[in-house]
Amino acid sequence: MTTRTVHHLIKSMPASDGAGVKLRRSLGQSPHARLDPFLMLDEFSSEDAADYIAGFPAHPHRGFETVTYILDGHMLHEDHLGNKGNLKSGGVQWMTAARGIIHSEMPQQDRGRMRGFQLWINLPAKDKMKPASYRDLQATDIPEVKLASDGKVRVIAGEYAGTRAPVAPGATDATYFDVHLPAGDEFKHAVTDGYNAFAYVYEGELAGIPAHSAAVFSPKGAVQVKAGAQGARFLLLAGRPLGEPVVQYGPFVMNTREEIEQAIRDYQNGTLATA
Questions:
Q1: What is the C-alpha to C-alpha distance for residues 122 and 244, in angstroms, rounded to an integer?
Q2: Helices marked H in the chain — which ranges?
Q3: Do the beta carbons of residue 220 and residue 253 sit within 8 Å?
Q4: What values do phi and psi take at 140, rounded to 5?
């Protein structure tokens, strides 16, 4: 089996979102920094409540999925569908906005560390106007696979070593792993040829991949990486590219400008989630 090489690096950049939450954005920092079907990846991490306490008040989405993964902390999700979920350390919120959802994500702590990620995954045109859906997964719902060393793989989406995640991502067939490797350890995973894949290192480093950077791999073969002297913790993402036009305006991601204009009108008219 051939091995993928690192095609290029996307260094995360400081940014803010919501009501002023400080974060680092790798994918999605510009329209040229996407990797079909992945639109955006944000990392947030702070011990200072001032960096996150304002949270993400009620806001709309249409046309894609958001996956929020909390490493440390406690957030409360509420949406117009009546869903209410407590997202705690190790948990995942998988939300398919599709034709429209209005939700909030607010910290339930005023001190201590808040750390995690939000990933945006595009939806194909045929699914963009389907009804919205939401799933809350607690830490105990996410299967873990122990590696030969002291490492492990948390399987958020996809399958690893015969262990399948509880979420089926649909058209994008997405893989989402949180991989923990001891110093000098190697990790290898077969990815379908033609699927896009990247790794985001959030602790330590991988050979040739520094911390807080997304490494975009070439499109064929397996992903194979090696942890540096301090070990590494990283996200591995892979998925089937949609190959469709992407037109984004803030929280709306559609295929044409006309569809974006319609989304804006629907939101202004209060029909975003019912149109």
A1: 10
A2: 257-269
A3: no
A4: -70, -15
Confidence of residue 129 (pLDDT cuts 50, 70, 90): very high
C-alpha 101, offset from chain centre:
18
How high is the pLDDT of residue 75?
94
Which amino acid is residue 233, in one-letter code? R
Distance in angstroms (rounded) separating the CA atoms of residues 67 and 156: 10
Looking at residue 168, its pLDDT comes to 86
pLDDT of 255 over the 90 cut: yes
How many Cα atoms are found within 13 Å in the side-chain-facing hemisphere of 115? Answer: 11
End-to-end CA distance of the chain: 48
pTM, two decimals, is 0.96
Scanning the structure block, which residue is given the tokens 């106007």?
129
Tell me the chain's radius of gyration from C-alpha atoms.
18
Give the torsion sign (CA, 150, 41, 241, 201): negative
pLDDT at 148 over 90: no
What is the Cα–Cα distance from 9 to 13, expressed in whole angstroms? 12
- Alpha carbon distance 144, 178 (integer Å): 9
Mean pLDDT of the chain: 95
pLDDT bracket for residue 19 (50, 70, 90):
confident
112, pLDDT greater than 80: yes
CA distances from residue 41 to 2, 13, 84 in whole angstroms, order as listed: 27, 11, 23
Q: Is the dihedral of CA 163, 92, 190, 201 positive or negative?
A: negative
Find out whether 232 and 205 touch, Cβ atoms under 8 Å.
yes
Report how far residue 224's alpha carbon sits from residue 161's, in angstroms, rounded to the nearest whole number. 15
Q: What is the identity of the amino acid at 178?
A: D
Predicted local distance difference test score (pLDDT) of residue 72:
97
Lookup: tokens for 95: 């939300």
Please report, as a single letter, which amino acid is at residue 93. Q
